[in-house]
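Two records follow; treat each independently.
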Amino acid sequence: MRNHNAVMCALLLLTISALQAGAAVKLPTIFSDNMMLQRGISAPIWGTAGPGELVTVKIAGQKAIAKAGKDGRWVVRLKPLKAGGPYDMTVSGKHKIVVKNILVGEVWFCSGQSNMVMTVKQCDNAKAEIADAKNYPEIRNYTVSLKASPNPLNDTVGKWEVCSPETVGKFTATGYFFAREIHNTLKVPVGIILSAWGGANMESFMRLDALKAHPVEAKPYFKLWEQRKAAFPAEHAAALKAAAEAKAAGKSAPKMRTLEGHQARPSSIYNAMISPIIPYGIRGVLWAGGKSNRFRALEYRTLMPAMIQNWRKSWGLGDFPFYLCQMANWISPNPDEHWEELREAMLKTTNLKNTGMVVTIDIGDPHNVHFTNKQEVSRRFVLQAEAKTYGMDVVCDGPIYVSMTSERGAIRLHFKSLGGLAARGGGALKGFVIAGGDRKFVPADAVIDGDTILVRSESVASPVAVRYAWEMNPDCNLVNRAGLPASPFRTDAWPFWEGVHEQGPADDGG
């Protein structure tokens, strides 16, 4: 009996010890040394502790107290802070955590696919850009490690890093160059959070209920997922074989992927890489990517705005800025591949409140989908933010088509966001095609006439539609006087595969 009692007492002590250990105050990884807090908002700080435990957060002369719920979760909201620092933040319950070297400034969330993932060391003038990073210790970067999950997670793997020549090479190039220019303009610290996955579907970044709210548009994506599930056993067997061969050859085995953690699973990236960050204080979002959605452009028109609204609702920060990067010019090795409709879908997404889009039809690499001029992409993102987020008097958009009128064998095009119409480099406008009622497009002559463009062709007596830059890699040059390019557009709403462009001898295709 004594032995039995001794064992029971030991077990009780172990249980109490485990409960006490579990009651330790914990913070998600996003709240760690070198972090950046968004200025001017009631920034949330959250974590876990023992059920009912009082947690105190102190920073910059503020003190906030929360009581952990039955599930151990707690959250406080700071009073708005001004840009500055560095500060230490103390989070105390039965245990204490000190987070050091915190700055307050502007925080931007960078997401999308591979062109957002692309790093500083992979872009133009990388050596000089890396050396220059020594001048920007008030820029901070947090990269969310790749992970997919069928269910929402509470934390991510990552760390905040101070910008330096030793760290900047692996920062997102688009995010870093954006942060640098915002820092130089506003004279405040800037933080960037990268949560992106190359080759991923946009739908994987949506919360599942938001995706299911659009069953018609989501159907092709769910069908694609079912096909991938069916193909997974063979894929997994091939991976096992490759791993065995690598091991036999004394090489590192490739990382094994599970079906549960597959990034194409509906909402899997949202669950593992977006949801754990919410509701961290941010100013807005930069998004670059879309190639994986190129065959579902029609659905993208509905689902991308739905994703933006999904994020905004989840974050609880109102209609925060959301800026997209349109697909750049590129020559696909697949002759059946077209991005025209996807570019159009991205443009239509900007009808949503407080959004914007940068056009990159003129700076891509025809032979590399991962073009390296991220400095110019970021400059155009900065113009969007300066004009639409920070209220500066700058031109941020190229000419955007609004409407057309017919007049005596020609079509007159009307635009907004003018800034003065121009042809890059001077000379004649290029990239326009025109069609009559037969819906067959031919090259057209286009002339700037004040704030409009008059388009005609001698071979089309009664034109009814015009398209501009309506190819994967178009030869086009319509800009405004600020040098910002016009987005590809069309005046018709014909089914996409109608009206194939009849290429002239000088047209290089693409």
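The next record belongs to a different protein.
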Amino acid sequence: MNSSATPEQQRLWMEAWRVAGAALEELKRQELGSLTEEQACALSETLLQGITFPQPPSWRDQSSGLVEQQRWFQRYVPSR
């Protein structure tokens, strides 16, 4: 939007984007609603292929970390 636009032009611009935003949301809802389960899975797989997940630490195979967390709380949280 041009900063030298008149208030009326600005109002019309904002109204156009408000209408466009609602139309795009409706289109998105319709497109997502019409996907088959296979199409949704294929699209999800495509999106996830671009993500590199870090390897979890080796200790995660043996522990969830909750025991260590509780040990820390017992040591550092003052008793009531």
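Discussion point: Residues 1-51 form one domain. How would you locate this feature using only the token line?
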